[in-house]
Amino acid sequence: MNREEYQRIIQSKELQPSHLDQFDLSRFSLPKITAVVPTYNRSPHTAKEDANPLGWCLESLLAQKGDVLDEIIVMDDASTDFTEEVVEDFQGKSNIDIRYFKNKKNLGSSKNKNRAARESKNNSLIFLDDDCIFSNYFIFGAGFTMDKLPENAAALHMPVYHRKISPGVIDASEIGKLDLAKGVMTGNHGAIPKHYFEDLESHFLDSDMSILNPIEIANLAGIFLTKKDLFEKIGNYPEFLNWKNGYREEAHVSINFKENGYGLYLTPDPKFHSIHLKYGSKGEEKAEELRLMPPKLKRLIDYSSVERDNTGNRVDSEEWFFSRIISTYVTLGIRNREAAKNYLVATEDEFVNKNELAVSGFGKKIEDLGQRKRIFDRAVTEGNKLLEKRVI
């Protein structure tokens, strides 16, 4: 499939959110959904200024169509900015109940999300990022697709485009992959399986509305719909893996779901996408992507693409590498000690010796060999302590 054919399919009206405007969605009796929005310092300006990622997130949630979303929980992990004022500005603007909670001290990603889940009134929970904006049928698409899944379905991941407005195309086997034996964990939750393009209509979950079939995956990331009772049954987010950037917390949840016999899925349907603004992370977007963006979205991305610390899950480079190494080591080691050892051997060579470990977000490669060695040794030492507590 060439680029022109790809653009024609992706930009076809059937795959655009507005395609659903012609349908009466009130005929569907879907479970009500609670949106969980954990946040930390994502409101640096007053509510009067249109410059807050949390405000953009809430604005897009209040614009949802399909009458499925009826509760938003904003869980503030001890922010020191205008978060409370921004949330108050949105409360009462629609029939969607916005509830605000603030921790007295910073609890970290996992504990913050678990508290929000406990406070929710619905069994259908969708975990979101506070620097994402959502298409108008995002929540409806989550509820509709989940309702069509097998009884043992525990989670449905939604499409996430990282500062883009269209999905990628890759082999389905590379989407949400988790191989404990090899220590391989992939995301790619913003892609459509390559084989769908061979005959797109054969992959419709609903032909009238042109809603795409979900695919089964093994690894979740940050934006997924789940069932509260099943989420609690498998132990929620792992609070013993409670580092600031939350690295691998979803992998732990994914493994627990799978080990308990539950299914994990992803809908690749572009009508239900979210756009991750990656607030506080330097931008390196492709010129073609920027050219295709609506002016307002480009403005939001430009504003988000300035490096900022003390916001969201942003950490400095040392903590970023430390969290990545220890979290992967412990997540593997709990289930497969041999795979964990192999991971350490490969990572020591890739990170310490060659300095080739990939970085993302706020992280930058560390040029000092001695510093890389200290980070690696610290991750192994503290990882071993965690594994000993888990009686491995």
Q: Gist?
A:
Helices cover 35% and strands 17% of the residues. It has 392 residues and is an alpha/beta fold. The mean pLDDT is 92.
Overview of the structural elements:
The chain has 392 residues and is of the alpha/beta class. The protein contains twelve helices and 17 strands. An eight-stranded mixed β-sheet has the order 3-2-1-4-15-6-16-14, with helices on both faces. Strands 5-17-7 form a three-stranded mixed β-sheet. A two-stranded parallel sheet has the order 8-11. α2 links the parallel β1 (33-39) and β2. α2 packs parallel to α3 (83-90). It is globular, with a radius of gyration of 21 Å.
Describe the secondary structure blueprint for this structure.
Layout: H1 3-10, E1 33-39, H2 53-62, E2 69-76, H3 83-90, E3 97-102, H4 109-119, E4 124-127, E5 132-134, H5 138-148, E6 153-157, E7 160-162, E8 168-170, E9 178-179, E10 184-185, E11 191-193, E12 204-206, E13 211-212, E14 215-217, E15 224-227, H6 228-233, H7 249-259, E16 263-266, E17 274-276, H8 287-292, H9 295-304, H10 317-335, H11 337-353, H12 369-389
Parallel strand pairs: 1-2, 1-4, 2-3, 6-16, 7-17, 8-11
Antiparallel strand pairs: 4-15, 5-17, 6-15, 9-10, 12-13, 14-16
Short key terms for the protein model shown above:
globular, three-stranded mixed sheet, 12 helices, 17 strands, alpha/beta, 392 residues
**Overall form:** globular
Going across the major beta sheet, what is the strand order? Answer: 3-2-1-4-15-6-16-14
* Overall pLDDT level: 92
> How many strand elements?
17
Computed over alpha carbons, the radius of gyration is 21 Å
Beta-strand residue percentage: 15-25%
Q: Which class do the helix and strand fractions yield?
A: alpha/beta
Low-confidence stretches: none
